[in-house]
Write a structure and sequence with these properties.
- The structure is a single chain.
- It is built from three helices and no strands.
- It starts with 18 loop residues before the first helix and ends with a helix.
- The chain has helices at residues 19-41, 46-77, 88-103.
- By secondary structure, it is mainly alpha-helical.
Amino acid sequence: MKDWQGDEMKDVKFPTVPYDKALHFIYGAAIAVAVMYVFMLFGTHRPSAKGLGFAAACLIGVAKEGLDYVQNQRCKKAGLPEIHTVSGMDAAATAVGGLLVLIA
């Protein structure tokens, strides 16, 4: 593979993001944008609306992981395998998606 100047590139390793974290990031940004625009429709100033969108993305990310945890506990009690992975990094990825909206 060659770079933009035509020089040969050797052993270039690009970082990858797990699919699940990328989805959390996208959903966090989408939640923040949706909440921001709803508040702006009702006359909230843009900076405040952005902050509320970010807060919503954070809260929904944490709530989703909490719900996954509760569902896993119910499955355990019923003798079934866990159906979700619970990860603080998932909640963080959702929050970072909201953060993108906040700083944009």
